[in-house]
């Protein structure tokens, strides 16, 4: 759920681990949908155009995906994820939330589903990513939309990432410039 820098990185990691199966991505932005396909998504769904739950079911033997990774950080998205995963499936929350989020637990209870969370901040996480970049297992060039100088970080970095999601994905800062 969500193909921002985090969701796209999740797709890359699934591909790097040679995960066997479909990767279904749910996203709104046209550019991010396109990059999700380039990163390896097998299907990209726009929740404004299609019913995510029924499309996911039809793509996965009528049952829905085994795992959903929530990377959008909006209540509608995590609730859709809770409904879309199959019975006994797993919802992994990767998103961070500014405030408590209302989640309908009934699909979790009746589907005997599980919820988990993942945060990636340790030195060994960074080492593993650096190694995967070095070996070429992670190919992230397609995610890099801008290269900016240090004094452009606020306007062309943070503000662009918040306001221009359709064109801004990964912004590299050249600290020497
Ligand atoms: N767990 C961690 O270690 C970790 C680390 C960094 C960031 N995060 C969090 O991960 C989340 C994603 O980060 P990001 O930088 O990719 O954010 P982002 O805002 O750039 O990307 C979120 C994407 O979700 C899409 N989206 C919005 N509503 C949607 C919906 N209803 N269905 C599907 N997609 C929808 C948006 O179009 C956007 O592309 C944020 O909450 C961020 O704080 C977590």
UniProtKB/TrEMBL annotation:
Keyword Heme: no
Domain Alcohol dehydrogenase-like C-terminal: 5-134
Entries under Pfam families matching the protein: ADH_zinc_N
Oxidoreductase listed as a keyword: yes
InterPro entries: ADH-like_C, NAD(P)-bd_dom_sf
Keywords: Oxidoreductase
Taxonomy, superkingdom: Eukaryota
Protein name according to UniProt: Alcohol dehydrogenase-like C-terminal domain-containing protein
């Amino acid at each position: 759920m969500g193909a921002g820098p985090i969701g796209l990185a999740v797709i890359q990691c699934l591909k790097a681990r040679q995960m066997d199966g479909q990767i279904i991505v749910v996203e709104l932005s046209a550019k991010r949908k396109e990059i999700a396909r380039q990163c390896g998504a097998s299907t990209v769904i726009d929740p404004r155009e299609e019913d995510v739950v029924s499309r996911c079911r039809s793509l996965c033997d009528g049952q829905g995906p085994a795992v959903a990774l929530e990377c959008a950080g909006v209540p509608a998205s995590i609730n859709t994820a809770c409904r879309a995963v199959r019975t006994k499936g797993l919802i992994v929350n990767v998103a961070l939330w500014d405030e408590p989020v209302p989640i309908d637990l009934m699909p979790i209870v009746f589907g005997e589903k599980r919820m988990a969370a993942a945060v990636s901040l340790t030195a060994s996480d960074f080492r593993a990513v650096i190694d995967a970049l070095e070996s070429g297992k992670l190919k992230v060039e397609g995610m890099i939309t801008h290269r900016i100088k240090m004094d452009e970080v606020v306007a062309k970095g943070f503000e662009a990432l918040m306001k221009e999601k359709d064109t801004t994905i990964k912004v590299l800062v050249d600290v020497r410039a």
